[in-house]
Amino acid sequence: QSLAFKVDAGKPEVNIAVPRDGMVIKQDQKLPTVFQCKDKESGLATCVGTAGDGSSGQPLDTSAAGQHTFSVTATDLAGNTRTVSVDYTVR
Questions:
Q1: Contact 47, 77 (CB under 8 A)
Q2: Beta partners for 64?
């Protein structure tokens, strides 16, 4: 009797709700990040954003004027990763 193994070659999903790509934010405005990650095949190992401690809800850096990038990286239990980035402007 043979065992069939399913290989997880798919990357996890990453959805960023805040900030939206192209969003303009006032300098020093308090704005929490909102994002989620999921993986249907092997399950999610990590989901980390580039603000604060990396968890959703951490405040976005709005201290310096100019264009900035916020990214979220998800890794599933099979080791597949996906990074999604959005750009925002602080004025």
A1: no
A2: none
Does the global pTM surpass 0.85?
yes
pLDDT of residue 5: 59
| Residue 37 CB coordination number (10 Å) | 23
Name the strands in the sheet holding 66-76, side by side, starting at the edge strand that comes first in the sequence: 23-25, 81-90, 66-76, 44-49
> Cβ(58)–Cβ(34) under 8 Å?
no
The answer to whether the peptide bond before residue 59 is cis (omega within 30 degrees of 0) is no
Identity at 11, one-letter amino acid code: K
Using an 8 Å Cβ cutoff, are 72 and 13 in contact?
no
Separation of alpha carbons 72 and 84, rounded Å: 5
Whether residue 14 contacts residue 74, with contact meaning beta carbons closer than 8 Å, is answered with yes
Q: Provide, for the chain, the percentages of residues in helix, strand and coil under a 3-state DSSP scheme, each rounded to the nearest 5.
A: 0, 45, 55
